[in-house]
Specification:
By secondary structure, the chain is an alpha+beta fold. The protein has helices at about 10-20, 30-35, 95-110, 120-125, 160-170, 230-235, 250-260, 280-285; strands spanning about 1-5, 50-55, 55-70, 75-85, 115, 130, 135-140, 155, 175-180, 195-200, 205-215, 215-225, 240-250, 265, 270-275. The strands form two sheets. Strands 1, 2, 3, 4, 5, 6, 9 and 15 form an eight-stranded mixed beta sheet that branches. A seven-stranded mixed beta sheet has the order 8-10-11-12-13-7-14, with helices on both faces.
Protein backbone atom coordinates (compact mmCIF):
# COMPACT_ATOMS: atom_id res chain seq x y z
CA UNK A 1 0.00 0.00 0.00
CA UNK A 2 1.36 3.40 -1.03
CA UNK A 3 0.18 6.70 0.45
CA UNK A 4 0.72 9.71 -1.79
CA UNK A 5 -0.92 12.57 -3.64
CA UNK A 6 -3.38 11.77 -6.39
CA UNK A 7 -2.07 11.93 -9.95
CA UNK A 8 -3.95 13.58 -12.78
CA UNK A 9 -4.34 10.23 -14.56
CA UNK A 10 -6.08 8.86 -11.43
CA UNK A 11 -8.51 11.72 -10.82
CA UNK A 12 -11.35 10.34 -12.94
CA UNK A 13 -11.11 6.96 -11.20
CA UNK A 14 -11.16 8.60 -7.79
CA UNK A 15 -14.13 10.84 -8.56
CA UNK A 16 -16.07 7.84 -9.83
CA UNK A 17 -15.45 6.03 -6.52
CA UNK A 18 -16.37 9.07 -4.42
CA UNK A 19 -19.50 9.83 -6.45
CA UNK A 20 -20.75 6.28 -5.93
CA UNK A 21 -20.10 6.53 -2.19
CA UNK A 22 -21.37 10.05 -1.46
CA UNK A 23 -23.60 11.08 -4.39
CA UNK A 24 -25.16 8.61 -6.82
CA UNK A 25 -25.14 5.72 -4.35
CA UNK A 26 -27.32 7.84 -2.04
CA UNK A 27 -29.80 8.79 -4.74
CA UNK A 28 -28.36 12.25 -5.28
CA UNK A 29 -27.31 13.95 -8.49
CA UNK A 30 -24.43 16.15 -9.71
CA UNK A 31 -20.88 14.85 -9.39
CA UNK A 32 -18.42 16.04 -6.79
CA UNK A 33 -16.37 17.40 -9.69
CA UNK A 34 -19.11 19.96 -10.35
CA UNK A 35 -20.04 20.46 -6.71
CA UNK A 36 -16.50 21.28 -5.57
CA UNK A 37 -14.68 22.49 -8.69
CA UNK A 38 -11.75 24.02 -6.78
CA UNK A 39 -11.14 20.78 -4.83
CA UNK A 40 -11.41 17.98 -7.39
CA UNK A 41 -9.27 19.57 -10.07
CA UNK A 42 -5.77 19.59 -11.53
CA UNK A 43 -4.61 22.53 -9.41
CA UNK A 44 -5.52 20.81 -6.13
CA UNK A 45 -4.03 17.37 -6.75
CA UNK A 46 -1.37 17.92 -4.08
CA UNK A 47 -4.21 18.21 -1.55
CA UNK A 48 -5.91 14.96 -2.57
CA UNK A 49 -4.35 12.04 -0.70
CA UNK A 50 -4.82 8.44 -1.76
CA UNK A 51 -3.80 5.00 -0.61
CA UNK A 52 -3.03 2.92 -3.70
CA UNK A 53 -2.66 -0.81 -4.08
CA UNK A 54 -0.89 -0.97 -7.43
CA UNK A 55 -3.20 0.84 -9.85
CA UNK A 56 -6.24 0.54 -7.56
CA UNK A 57 -7.29 3.39 -5.27
CA UNK A 58 -8.43 1.80 -2.01
CA UNK A 59 -8.68 4.85 0.26
CA UNK A 60 -8.67 8.63 -0.13
CA UNK A 61 -9.42 12.02 1.34
CA UNK A 62 -9.53 15.56 -0.01
CA UNK A 63 -8.20 18.77 1.53
CA UNK A 64 -9.00 22.37 0.74
CA UNK A 65 -6.71 25.07 2.08
CA UNK A 66 -8.14 28.51 2.85
CA UNK A 67 -7.40 31.86 4.47
CA UNK A 68 -9.01 32.62 7.83
CA UNK A 69 -9.16 36.16 9.19
CA UNK A 70 -9.77 37.08 12.81
CA UNK A 71 -9.53 40.69 14.03
CA UNK A 72 -7.19 41.61 11.18
CA UNK A 73 -4.90 38.58 11.53
CA UNK A 74 -4.82 36.08 8.67
CA UNK A 75 -4.24 32.41 9.41
CA UNK A 76 -3.95 29.40 7.14
CA UNK A 77 -6.56 26.68 7.55
CA UNK A 78 -7.34 23.42 5.79
CA UNK A 79 -10.56 21.46 5.73
CA UNK A 80 -10.76 17.73 5.15
CA UNK A 81 -13.63 15.88 3.51
CA UNK A 82 -14.59 12.95 1.30
CA UNK A 83 -12.79 10.50 3.60
CA UNK A 84 -13.27 7.18 1.82
CA UNK A 85 -12.14 3.56 1.96
CA UNK A 86 -13.25 0.87 -0.47
CA UNK A 87 -15.60 -1.60 1.30
CA UNK A 88 -13.21 -4.49 0.66
CA UNK A 89 -10.38 -2.67 2.47
CA UNK A 90 -12.12 -1.28 5.54
CA UNK A 91 -11.05 -2.05 9.11
CA UNK A 92 -7.38 -1.98 8.05
CA UNK A 93 -6.50 1.48 9.38
CA UNK A 94 -6.10 3.05 5.95
CA UNK A 95 -8.16 6.16 6.71
CA UNK A 96 -6.14 6.67 9.89
CA UNK A 97 -2.90 6.47 7.93
CA UNK A 98 -4.20 8.99 5.40
CA UNK A 99 -5.30 11.41 8.12
CA UNK A 100 -1.94 11.16 9.87
CA UNK A 101 -0.10 11.75 6.58
CA UNK A 102 -2.31 14.71 5.72
CA UNK A 103 -1.71 16.33 9.13
CA UNK A 104 2.06 15.99 8.64
CA UNK A 105 1.85 17.48 5.15
CA UNK A 106 -0.27 20.42 6.30
CA UNK A 107 2.06 21.16 9.21
CA UNK A 108 5.07 21.13 6.87
CA UNK A 109 3.25 23.53 4.55
CA UNK A 110 2.75 26.02 7.39
CA UNK A 111 -0.99 25.48 7.84
CA UNK A 112 -2.16 26.65 11.26
CA UNK A 113 -5.19 24.42 11.83
CA UNK A 114 -7.39 21.73 10.32
CA UNK A 115 -11.14 21.26 10.46
CA UNK A 116 -13.52 18.50 9.41
CA UNK A 117 -17.13 17.48 10.07
CA UNK A 118 -18.25 14.02 11.13
CA UNK A 119 -20.78 12.08 13.16
CA UNK A 120 -18.07 9.48 13.93
CA UNK A 121 -16.20 11.73 16.30
CA UNK A 122 -14.62 9.01 18.42
CA UNK A 123 -12.68 7.80 15.38
CA UNK A 124 -11.13 11.21 14.72
CA UNK A 125 -10.60 11.94 18.42
CA UNK A 126 -8.13 9.04 18.57
CA UNK A 127 -6.04 10.95 16.02
CA UNK A 128 -5.99 14.20 17.99
CA UNK A 129 -9.02 15.97 16.53
CA UNK A 130 -11.12 17.86 19.10
CA UNK A 131 -14.91 18.36 18.79
CA UNK A 132 -16.30 21.87 19.15
CA UNK A 133 -19.19 23.32 17.17
CA UNK A 134 -21.40 26.38 17.58
CA UNK A 135 -23.37 25.60 14.44
CA UNK A 136 -27.14 25.15 14.49
CA UNK A 137 -29.67 23.79 12.02
CA UNK A 138 -33.01 25.54 11.69
CA UNK A 139 -36.16 24.25 10.05
CA UNK A 140 -39.42 25.91 9.05
CA UNK A 141 -42.40 24.43 7.23
CA UNK A 142 -43.43 27.01 4.63
CA UNK A 143 -46.29 25.25 2.84
CA UNK A 144 -48.95 27.20 4.69
CA UNK A 145 -47.22 30.58 4.40
CA UNK A 146 -47.21 31.09 0.64
CA UNK A 147 -45.77 34.62 0.92
CA UNK A 148 -46.30 37.06 -1.89
CA UNK A 149 -43.35 37.79 -4.20
CA UNK A 150 -41.03 40.57 -3.07
CA UNK A 151 -40.61 42.73 -6.13
CA UNK A 152 -37.64 44.52 -4.60
CA UNK A 153 -35.58 41.32 -4.19
CA UNK A 154 -33.36 40.44 -7.12
CA UNK A 155 -31.42 37.32 -8.05
CA UNK A 156 -27.80 38.17 -8.88
CA UNK A 157 -25.10 36.18 -10.68
CA UNK A 158 -23.24 34.53 -7.83
CA UNK A 159 -19.58 34.53 -8.90
CA UNK A 160 -19.72 37.95 -10.53
CA UNK A 161 -21.04 39.52 -7.32
CA UNK A 162 -18.54 37.87 -4.98
CA UNK A 163 -16.78 41.18 -4.14
CA UNK A 164 -20.10 42.75 -3.13
CA UNK A 165 -20.96 39.81 -0.87
CA UNK A 166 -17.46 39.75 0.62
CA UNK A 167 -17.75 43.45 1.43
CA UNK A 168 -20.83 42.76 3.55
CA UNK A 169 -19.25 39.73 5.24
CA UNK A 170 -16.03 41.54 6.12
CA UNK A 171 -17.97 44.48 7.53
CA UNK A 172 -20.14 42.24 9.70
CA UNK A 173 -17.84 39.44 10.88
CA UNK A 174 -14.81 39.56 13.19
CA UNK A 175 -13.74 36.04 12.23
CA UNK A 176 -14.40 34.48 8.86
CA UNK A 177 -13.18 32.32 6.01
CA UNK A 178 -12.06 34.56 3.14
CA UNK A 179 -13.74 33.60 -0.12
CA UNK A 180 -12.40 34.11 -3.61
CA UNK A 181 -14.83 34.45 -6.53
CA UNK A 182 -14.32 30.81 -7.53
CA UNK A 183 -15.30 29.71 -4.03
CA UNK A 184 -18.85 30.83 -4.84
CA UNK A 185 -19.03 28.08 -7.45
CA UNK A 186 -19.52 25.49 -4.69
CA UNK A 187 -22.72 23.46 -4.68
CA UNK A 188 -23.21 21.85 -1.25
CA UNK A 189 -24.86 18.45 -1.01
CA UNK A 190 -27.80 17.91 -1.53
CA UNK A 191 -28.70 21.20 -3.25
CA UNK A 192 -29.09 21.15 -7.03
CA UNK A 193 -28.59 24.91 -7.47
CA UNK A 194 -27.54 27.95 -5.42
CA UNK A 195 -28.64 31.54 -5.96
CA UNK A 196 -27.93 34.82 -4.24
CA UNK A 197 -30.93 36.96 -3.31
CA UNK A 198 -30.19 40.66 -2.94
CA UNK A 199 -32.24 43.41 -1.29
CA UNK A 200 -31.28 47.05 -1.05
CA UNK A 201 -33.36 49.95 0.27
CA UNK A 202 -32.43 53.48 1.34
CA UNK A 203 -28.73 52.71 1.54
CA UNK A 204 -29.25 49.45 3.45
CA UNK A 205 -28.40 46.12 1.84
CA UNK A 206 -28.41 42.40 2.63
CA UNK A 207 -28.23 39.11 0.80
CA UNK A 208 -29.21 35.46 1.18
CA UNK A 209 -27.33 32.45 -0.18
CA UNK A 210 -30.11 30.04 -1.07
CA UNK A 211 -29.83 26.46 -2.26
CA UNK A 212 -32.67 24.47 -3.81
CA UNK A 213 -33.60 20.83 -4.28
CA UNK A 214 -37.18 20.10 -5.32
CA UNK A 215 -39.53 21.79 -2.84
CA UNK A 216 -36.82 22.21 -0.20
CA UNK A 217 -34.70 25.33 0.21
CA UNK A 218 -31.40 25.65 2.06
CA UNK A 219 -30.58 29.04 3.57
CA UNK A 220 -26.79 28.97 3.87
CA UNK A 221 -26.28 32.60 4.74
CA UNK A 222 -28.37 35.66 5.60
CA UNK A 223 -26.08 38.64 6.01
CA UNK A 224 -26.16 42.43 5.93
CA UNK A 225 -28.57 44.97 7.42
CA UNK A 226 -31.30 43.23 9.40
CA UNK A 227 -33.84 45.77 8.11
CA UNK A 228 -33.61 43.92 4.77
CA UNK A 229 -34.04 40.42 6.17
CA UNK A 230 -37.86 40.26 5.98
CA UNK A 231 -37.97 40.78 2.22
CA UNK A 232 -35.24 38.18 1.71
CA UNK A 233 -36.95 35.68 4.01
CA UNK A 234 -40.28 36.04 2.19
CA UNK A 235 -38.59 35.45 -1.15
CA UNK A 236 -36.62 32.48 0.18
CA UNK A 237 -39.83 30.83 1.40
CA UNK A 238 -41.74 31.19 -1.86
CA UNK A 239 -42.68 28.07 -3.82
CA UNK A 240 -41.25 25.55 -1.35
CA UNK A 241 -42.56 23.23 1.35
CA UNK A 242 -39.75 23.63 3.85
CA UNK A 243 -36.61 25.64 4.40
CA UNK A 244 -33.51 24.44 6.27
CA UNK A 245 -31.18 27.07 7.74
CA UNK A 246 -27.48 26.64 8.47
CA UNK A 247 -26.36 29.24 10.99
CA UNK A 248 -24.26 29.99 14.02
CA UNK A 249 -25.83 30.40 17.45
CA UNK A 250 -25.76 34.07 18.43
CA UNK A 251 -25.36 35.55 14.94
CA UNK A 252 -27.55 38.50 13.84
CA UNK A 253 -29.43 36.23 11.44
CA UNK A 254 -29.96 33.61 14.17
CA UNK A 255 -31.48 36.22 16.49
CA UNK A 256 -33.66 37.73 13.75
CA UNK A 257 -34.97 34.36 12.57
CA UNK A 258 -35.67 33.28 16.15
CA UNK A 259 -37.62 36.47 16.90
CA UNK A 260 -39.44 36.95 13.57
CA UNK A 261 -40.17 33.48 12.15
CA UNK A 262 -41.34 30.03 13.20
CA UNK A 263 -37.90 28.47 12.83
CA UNK A 264 -37.01 25.71 15.29
CA UNK A 265 -33.33 25.07 16.02
CA UNK A 266 -31.15 22.16 17.03
CA UNK A 267 -27.42 21.98 17.64
CA UNK A 268 -25.26 20.46 14.90
CA UNK A 269 -22.18 19.25 16.75
CA UNK A 270 -20.17 17.91 13.82
CA UNK A 271 -17.07 20.13 13.63
CA UNK A 272 -13.69 18.82 14.80
CA UNK A 273 -10.48 20.84 14.95
CA UNK A 274 -6.76 20.10 14.89
CA UNK A 275 -4.26 22.80 15.95
CA UNK A 276 -1.17 22.60 13.74
CA UNK A 277 0.87 25.62 14.81
CA UNK A 278 1.60 27.63 17.95
CA UNK A 279 -0.51 30.49 16.56
CA UNK A 280 -3.72 28.56 17.23
CA UNK A 281 -5.04 27.02 20.47
CA UNK A 282 -8.22 25.08 21.11
CA UNK A 283 -9.46 27.96 23.23
CA UNK A 284 -9.34 30.08 20.12
CA UNK A 285 -10.70 27.42 17.77
CA UNK A 286 -13.75 26.81 19.96
CA UNK A 287 -15.04 30.27 19.07
CA UNK A 288 -14.93 29.73 15.31
CA UNK A 289 -17.54 28.58 12.82
CA UNK A 290 -17.12 27.52 9.19
CA UNK A 291 -20.36 28.07 7.25
CA UNK A 292 -21.91 25.00 5.69
CA UNK A 293 -21.64 26.60 2.25
CA UNK A 294 -17.82 26.54 2.48
CA UNK A 295 -17.36 22.95 3.61
CA UNK A 296 -16.30 19.85 1.71
Amino acid sequence: MEIRSCQLSELDQLIQLLDEEFIFGKGRIISLRQRFPTVFCRNNLHNIMICADGEEIVSALAMRQFDWRENGETLQGAMIGAVYTHPAHRKKGLSSRLLEASAIQLHEQGVDFGVLWSEQQSFYARLGWVPSDCGVLGKAETGDLMPEPSGDVTILPLVANAPRLEGIRQHQLNSMILRRPDDYRQLPVPAESVNVLWHENQGKAAYALLGSSGETRFLYELAGDTACFLALWREACRDCRQILINDRAGSPSFHWLTDQTGVSWKNKSLAMWLPLSERVSMTRLRQWHIPYFDRI
